[in-house]
Hints:
The protein is 22% helix and 33% strand. By secondary structure, the protein is of the alpha+beta class. A twelve-stranded antiparallel barrel has the order 11-12-13-14-15-16-17-18-19-20-21-22. It has a six-stranded mixed sheet with strand order 2-1-3-7-9-10, with helices on both faces.
Amino acid sequence: MTPILRTLLAFCMVLVTSGFVFAQAERNISTSALSDKRIALVIGNAAYPGMGALKNPVNDAKDIAAKLRRMGFEVIVRTDSRQKEMLRSLTEFGDRIRPGSEVLFFYAGHGMQVRGKNYLIPIDAEIRTESAVSSEAIDVDQLLDKLAPARLSMVILDACRNNPFERRFRGGGQGLASINAPTGTLIAYSTAPGKVAADGEGRNGLYTQELLAAMSIPGIKVEDVFKRVRANVVRISGETQVPWESSSMTGDFYFSPAANQGATASSVAPATNSPELAFWNSAERSDTVGDYEAYLKRFPDGIFSDLAKSRVVLLKRPAAAPPSDRELIVSPKLHVGDRWTYNDFTQTVEQAGEQGFVLKQAHSSTTTLMRTNADGHLLSTESLMTSGGGPKVSYAPALPILKYPLKVGAAWREPYQTKTEFIFTINDSWEYEGKVTGWESVRVPAGTFEALRIDWSIRQTSGSGGHSGTYWYAPEVKGWARTLTHARGKTITSELQSFVLQPD
């Protein structure tokens, strides 16, 4: 394979694993002196051609528009807009703005920066050179000019995606450039300037999902809404995504006004004085089955429900003798709905049968489907980050990450080939080596487990690639208690936070 082809594929893989971003937001302002009119323009672009297609923006735009209407906004909503339609919508939006108006602009879709200027990309944009950007995309400065008559304005840009347009020329950069907000304006980004954001796993992007929840909380200032959103997005994304605002607003404004402006609980993370958090803290201090089950009865879908379930399982387990080095560990029986939550991803069994399993691994920025045979050997992986999917990798023969039955001293070395299909098809040859070195007691947030330590390495026999690491396999949870991966000079650690196993 030529160096150019390999470099291009490597870029595409980075683009996919980084994730196309579909986060976004909105806001609503209710102030003690209401303005004459509330107007919003909401645009969600998803149907870009080829690998630029996105999944969430249309849903995000519809949900935001519905929320704004309930909050008293007159809403113009557009989805999958071409350039001419976007320009006409901006003109219509500007014509409705009067002195004293409160206005909001929301955009979800691809955006880019070129030499410090930000552009929103219509679905029909043909951007092949830097000089084409100004004629094919929408200059954000044009939007800001339209907002000038308003008493206050908010601009929410979920356009901080790593996209297929911006690296075609030297002037482009990741994400969006920082903008100095004009007087009376707040500009919100789904992630920090120059960075890219993450997709969510459900109907909405991560940023949108958190903002939709936070803006419904009555009686908190708009600045505090964005603080809550930022805290939750940072926590959920493992600090890989940090929302950002630039503001020159004066006075206090509210998404949802309240007669009593006291603090209210967050819908994502319980406030420090919430009944749920107090109940959980009490259960955790006592660390008994009864108290954890009482928490689950009171809060069956609570923030800590998965952790409470796994604690119950651990506390109910009978005392076991230390494992013997001669003990054989057979392939576990998995069931649909088995779930393991780690600090950086969640893995769920989607399908289970005599022929094998399908597992979904959800990270903050991408979701991957993994197909295995009945022995748990990896057959294929497929990225699910956009409506058009992502790279699919097939393994021949199936990759034996673990080779059952496991016992101390067992070792295996297996050559295999991969076929990567994404824009181009690339074939590579590899060798996987694993060795069970012994039993170790591993303490992680989900509990303390006796686990088999498996040291492993992968070497590319058709090139110079490779990495290594260690797995601690805990039979009690039918999966990893901890993993370490060494790659490209970095070490990545994953630890089990909680787990839910269906009965055998």
